[in-house]
Amino acid sequence: MAILSGRKGGRALSRIAVAAIAAALVGTTAGAASADSTPAPAVAKAAQKFAQTQAKSKQSASQRAFAAGDEIPAAETFPLLAADGSGTLYGYPPNGSGGFGERTVLGDGWNVISQATQVDNNKDGVSDAWYTLGTNGHLYFVKLEADAVAKDLGAGWDTYNLVFSPGNLGGAPADDLLARDKAGVLWLYTANADGSFAPRVKLGAGWGAMTKIAGRGDMNGDGKADIIAVDNSGTGWLYPGTGNWAAPFGNRVKLGAGWNTYNKLVGLGDLNFDGKVDLVGRDASGGLWFYAGTGTTNGAPFKDRVKVGTGWNGMRLMF
Questions:
Q1: What DSSP string describes 217-252?
Q2: Calpha distance 92→118 (Å, rounded)
Q3: pTM for the complete prediction?
Q4: Which of 166, 211, 160 is nearest to 190 (CA)?
Q5: Hey, is 306 helix, strand or coil?
Q6: What is the pLDDT of residues 202-235, one digit of tens each?
């Protein structure tokens, strides 16, 4: 922009020039506001705050079950993360008995996040990164570190009504993503440590009949990540993992009826520190229920449920 003289008697700014400058300023301000309204800043800020709490999570690993001769816990243990209707994100550390300890505020601005999931790419038993899907259709990957920056993986992810990671499905070191599109087709995205993906693999149609799909890690004790799915009738199904990216699930196993009691299922790994993978569910009244894992392949992956909380219906997002 040319420098305009302010000398007395100089040419006055024309109304057109003034209007042009004003328009430029408005455009700059609007651009800044638009950038700030994207999910990336809120995601990065929360990841930075979460990184400060990771030391406590790693310390709690000393209480957990370890495989013989191993320095890493036998199963991952993730905190429960939840965002309320105002967009505030909270972290709830597991207390070792299926419930959760005192929550920590991780940040605001999560009202522009529609879905989120945790991953453990370095396999130390605690989460080290998140994938978050913004209401703008972009997927973001962020490592949980002090200088965290949310990496934009591109647009078009709003074609999926479900995006989450059950762990490592494809055999590579990093945790993978499952995504279900609006036509009910399920897709596998095998992931790299930097959050990027290999070309997606179509797993099949008909998954639109499932009202919920969840899980984190090995639920049947065979060493491979599994998932739980609930159909329209409320019947729960276990889909055992195979470890093969081309066909990641074996024949499903019926878990029984009544799973439509829950409007949310969340897999967070081992929550009672016994080395077996557990599950939590939220019912319509906001009650939170804990299903302790058995780690068996006999079709009964969980013990009887235990109620571990109330008031959770205020949470819009749980992962």
A1: S-SSSSSS--EEEEETTS-EEEE-B-S-TTS-B-S-
A2: 14
A3: 0.86
A4: 166
A5: strand
A6: 999 999 999 999 999 999 999 999 999 999 999 9
